[in-house]
Amino acid sequence: MPIATVNPANGETLRTYEAMGEEEIERRLQLAEATFRTYRTSTLEERAGKLHRAAELLEQDAQEIGRVITTEMGKPVRQARAEAAKCAKAMRWYADHAAGLLADEEPAEAEVKDSGASRVLVRYRPLGPVLAVMPWNFPLWQVVRFAAPALMAGNVGLLKHSSNVPQTALYLEDLFHRAGFPEGCFQTLLIGSAAVDGVLRDERVRAATLTGSEPAGRAVAATSGEMIKKTVLELGGSDPFVVMPSADLDRAAEVAVNARVQNTGQSCIAAKRFIVHSDVYDAFTERFTEGMKALKVGDPLEEDTDVGPLSTEQGLDDLMELVDDAVRGGAEVLCGGERPDGPGWYYPPTVLAGITRGMRIHREEAFGPVATLYRAADLDEAVLIANDTDFGLSSNVWTRDESDVDRFVRDLEAGGVYVNGMTASHPAFPFGGVKRSGYGRELSGHGIREFCNITTVWHGA
User: How is residue 448 annotated by DSSP?
Assistant: First the structure.
């Protein structure tokens, strides 16, 4: 894929960039290593001040960068501005909480005495330059949720962003520089995917984090394993949205629409499989389908647009193939299902019923505004359907029965269980998945410690 801004609303190429050559990559690796040696000795107060300043600048830039994001990957502009606000919130959260999250820990006195020590501390120290391989779907948020904790911990960042959001990638480097972080603290590498392996193998790069596809995660994990480097992976998701008889159906259906089409359905944590108890299946399906039909699809720069274009033509083709395969297999199209005429990579909100295990869409992630409906006879079948996926990122459960909640929390194979609400990431709570959705955690104290050297300091008696 060329490094270029191509407007998904009309297919027009707006800007292209030359990939960095080996000489420039080497210069930036040298700078990252040199900057880390001094930046790691800065105080948490100094880092927090710079991160607060970055949050202020981002808020000031929200209108401008929001339009850039929309023209690069098609997100409705209201959602692009909201993404910028969310990033500023996360920056402030880490600036305010990092000191507590990284504070030295002292084991219990009995354990210290038993070890023969006079004192024992557990200290969190930075690892060094961390390579972040990030996707286009949340081009600010995916980066900031890595960068904010990494910079507060004393690490420095190297960003390899998706090739279709180069302006956003360069903006992020400039943002941190304007906020006062030393040159080399956060650098964007304008490189193609083929160059990632060489950067990751460089000894100066100490760890890596990737959000993206399963094949990309496998490649980064394989090289990192060979080089014995720490990784955090957040890969795909096919999150279940379970509706039980005691649920508030009006509210569940309303949230279900947003949960499926947020970011034009291009979100790993978007609800994708709607598993509804037989007793309320018809009532929920009617409400949900009507809600999907009512959405406005159109120019993402218009304020009242709900669903914009998909980010790339290939993404549109992939989604259409999944829908067509399901229809050939007997799925019923309750709404949508046909690409509209005209320019741009648009696809309508679509609801499919009658999904079977032999359909590709049952196994593969539908990255776009397409929902699949399943009928469950009881709670046991709902759990079986929910777990019948290779992914395990998050899940949504709608019920007012506490025994239902206990069962779902115990048995759902996912990194999160959201009860009577939509999955959403928040800086205070750990985020990540199980199975083929990846490993490790971002955000919260767990996220900031992922790229720390957890050091035991033992003092003799």
Answer: H
Residue 370 is encoded by which pair of tokens?
């397409």
Determine the Cα–Cα distance for residues 417 and 382; give it in Å rounded to an integer: 14
Residue written as token pair 């500023």: 88
> For the chain, which domains are there?
4-236+435-460 (3.40.605.10), 239-388+394-419 (3.40.309.10)
> Among 385, 382, 357, 362, which residue's Cα sits nearest to residue 372?
362
The single residue listed with the structure tokens 């949720």 is: 145
The pLDDT tens digits for 384-430 are: 999 999 999 999 999 999 999 999 999 999 999 999 999 999 999 99
Look at the block and give the residue holding tokens 């985020």. 431
* Segment (H or E) for 379: helix 379-387
Residue 140, Cβ density class (10 Å: 0-12 exposed, 13-18 middle, ≥19 buried): buried
**Does the annotation count 185 as an active-site position?**
no
Q: Which of 72, 173, 185, 268 is catalytic?
A: 268
Round to whole Å and give the CA distance between 182 and 191: 22
Pairing of strands 332-335, 438-439: unpaired
pLDDT digits (tens, 9 = 90+) for 304-326: 999 999 999 999 999 999 999 99
Q: Is 268 a residue of the active site?
A: yes
Which of 72, 234, 365, 450 is catalytic? The answer is: 234
Contact 94, 442 (CB under 8 A): no
435 has a pLDDT exceeding 80: yes
Q: In this structure, are residues 271 and 240 in contact, taking their beta carbons and an 8 Å threshold?
A: yes
What is the DSSP pairing of strand 239-243 with strand 396-398?
parallel
Contact (CB, 8 A) for 310 and 319: yes
> Average pLDDT of the chain?
98
pLDDT band at 77 (very low <50, low <70, confident <90, very high): very high
DSSP, residue by residue, 220-273 = HHHHHHHHT-EEEEE----EEEEE-TTS-HHHHHHHHHHHHHGGGG--TTSEEE
Written as six digits, the tokens of 3 are: 């490094």
Q: Which residue from 282, 272, 287, 289 is spatially nearest to 371, judged by alpha carbons?
A: 272
Distance CA 163, CA 170 (A): 11
Asked whether 105 and 439 are in contact (CB, 8 A), the reply is no
